[in-house]
Amino acid sequence: MRLDHLSFAAGPDGLASTAQRIGGQLGKDFIDGGVHPRFGTRNMIMPLDGRTYIEIVEVLDHPASDKAPFGQAVRARSALGGGWLGWVVAVDDITSVEERLGRESVKGNRHLPNGEELLWRQIGVHGLLSDPQLPFFIQWESPAEMHPSNAADSQFSLVALEIAGDPQRVSEWLGETVEAPLEDIKVEWVAPNGTPGIIAVQLQTPSGLVRL
Question: Which of 20, 127, 163, 186 is the most exposed place for a label (fewest CB within 10 A)?
Fold first, then answer.
């Protein structure tokens, strides 16, 4: 179990403008990630050191975005002006999570700009919808060399997460202590003053520490 990626919902200015704005703050451009046809969304990504990445995601004018929980989550966050949507934990065997949560994972795929297809299974977006401090789970089915972090620049890395929430609640959701997927990343927990979830992310860049 490890932190796989962070999701940021595009603001009212749209995906490209949001990616340009955040990329400008970090000093690095986001790249086109492609389309999630099952979820009615598309993304742009920034690979980071440590097998992690950031995605900026927006909903498409597509029926799937109204039906799929992930599309619903993105739409709801974007409607609030955009911002951090949630964090995603990678597991080697998602069946144990399915058994613990009492439901099946769903298939996910992303059509990449180069024509390739990225495949995975995921579960737990319903938890994110009801309690945004909770991560959802992913098991990659595509080869490791296709992981979105593989083009990472070692000068860009995730340093810390600031989360409004309760680490005990998140540990119960994970089925392990919250430190398990976040062992190399500092987490600052604050009591929710409103909606729980990611408040900010701190990243190391060639120009120093940047807080988003």
Answer: 186
